[in-house]
């Protein structure tokens, strides 16, 4: 299930996979497509989380130059270009653990 950005959870870690994005980011569009496909194949819920909804602090500062940022269970696992093979491996490991 994909939650639209305007309905994104208010806190990090609300769904298993989250992608932090900013408006107009071409890498974000590409990353969202990868997450939608791979998470869908694994039956994993995911959501787009706008950077503007992330609380002020060092993570938000760092993520502002790393978008899109992939979080799995609230932990940063990838950024800039979401690698579908890496995401597949991470989701398989998550499901086994």
Features:
Glutaredoxin; single chain; alpha/beta; disordered N terminus; globular; five-stranded mixed sheet
Protein model, in words:
By secondary structure, this protein is an alpha/beta fold. The protein has a single domain (2-96), classed as Glutaredoxin (3-Layer(aba) Sandwich), CATH 3.40.30.10. Helices cover 37% and strands 22% of the residues. It is built from three helices and five strands; from the N terminus they run ββαβαββα. It has helices spanning 26-42, 58-63, 84-96, and strands at 2-3, 17-21, 46-50, 69-72, 75-79. Strands 1-3-2-4-5 form a five-stranded mixed β-sheet, with helices on one face. Helix 1 runs parallel beside helix 3 (84-96). The protein is globular. The two termini are 21 Å apart. Mean pLDDT is 88; it is low at 3-10.
